[in-house]
Amino acid sequence: MVIKVLGSGCAKCKQLYAEVEKAIAQTGQPVALTKVETIEEVMSYGVMMTPALVIDGRVVASGRIPSANEIATMITRTEGFSNNSMGSKRK
């Protein structure tokens, strides 16, 4: 699983990154966590407000900071979706 925090590196972006770290610790899932701070790459996701959260290529939150518990739920649901052979990810 790949999780990206999109934003310019502002205080809210850093806060979202910290919440994601907490959520990863809660779930115990193997996750590659990265920051995306270049405006070109942020814009490539169609995000209008930062910070934004991307899980496995899908924007799951934008313009707000979900709690660690909410992010943990997103991670768990995405993990189940990724393992479902009947489903496919949006691109």
Question: What does this molecule look like?
Answer:
43% of the residues lie in helices and 21% in strands. By secondary structure, the chain is α+β, with helices and mostly antiparallel strands. The chain has a single domain (2-83), classed as Glutaredoxin, CATH 3.40.30. Strands 2-1-3-4 form a 4-stranded mixed β-sheet. Helix 1 (11-27) packs across helix 3 (68-83). The protein is globular. The model is unreliable at 83-91 (pLDDT under 50).
Compile the SSE list and pairings.
Layout: E1 2-6, H1 11-27, E2 32-36, H2 39-44, E3 52-55, E4 58-62, H3 68-83
Parallel strand pairs: 1-2
Antiparallel strand pairs: 1-3, 3-4
Helix pairs in contact: 1-3
Give short descriptive properties of this protein:
91 residues; alpha+beta; Glutaredoxin; four-stranded mixed β-sheet; disordered C terminus
Provide the helix percentage: 40-55%
**Biggest sheet strand line-up:** 2-1-3-4
Number of helices: 3
**Biggest β-sheet description:** 4 strands, mixed
Q: So, the CATH homologous superfamily?
A: Glutaredoxin
State the order of secondary-structure elements, H for helix, E for strand: EHEHEEH
Distance from N terminus to C terminus (CA atoms, Å) equals 15 Å
CATH topology annotation: Glutaredoxin
The backbone outline, from C-alpha atoms, is globular
Low-confidence stretches are 83-91
Radius of gyration: 13 Å
Number of domains: 1
Total E-strand runs: 4
Structural class: alpha+beta
CATH class: Alpha Beta
Which architecture name does CATH use?
A: 3-Layer(aba) Sandwich
What's the overall average pLDDT, rounded? 88
Beta-strand residue fraction: 15-25%
